[in-house]
Amino acid sequence: MAAGDCTAIAEILRNQARGTMSGKPKLHYFNGRGRMETIRWLLAAAGVEFEESFLEKKEDLTKLQNDGSLLFQQVPMVEIDGMKLVQTRAIANYISTKYNLYGKDLKERALIDMYVEGLFDLNDLLMTHEILPADKKDQHFANMMDKAENRYLPVFEKVLKDHGKDFLVGNQLSRADVQLLEILIMAEEFKPDIFAKFPLLQSFKAKLGNIPTIKKFLQPGSQRKPPSDEKVVDQVMKIFYS
Question: Disulfide-capable partner of 33 in 37, 57, 103, 209 (CB 3.0 to 4.6 Å)?
């Protein structure tokens, strides 16, 4: 077999592994973090290129609802492999399984699920803070930081210590690692010294941030979204709550 043929076959196999034979996944959401950000993180960590279609006004959401694209009339929605997937956890489960981010056996998957559910809980706290009225932010911030520093982050510090590996489960990258890194970066945005009591998490953040696909996603100009400002919050209110 000629060298050129081998190269072509290798490229086809790479494309199949990344799901590009059926086109890039297409993400439907507003141009901000919200519940889609975890999905962006997982695709980016897997090295999968994706497209985005942003909701800019309420009519954009209504159109998706009326044409039958949204099973439960809500986003996020991801077009992938001929499907229109909704529900954040279902989308994340599919992507994690497809791109080998879900452990090697049932026990590893159970651990990943357990860690991820805790991360979703903390993520909800962090996301909620961005859209609260100004008069409720201080109280919510105090509660959020208390739970982050005394309930959630100590768990993952201990998991890393007890496991003794660079990753939370097994000895390879999983969705639990990716989602933890996402949360760590978000938490640090709220409180820059939050890792003072968590040296293993600080080291974990640095190591995972140097994985090539993740490092690329962390660079300026990537599809990672910044913290939501007043303009984004106002747009979200008009799309979903007007």
Answer: 37
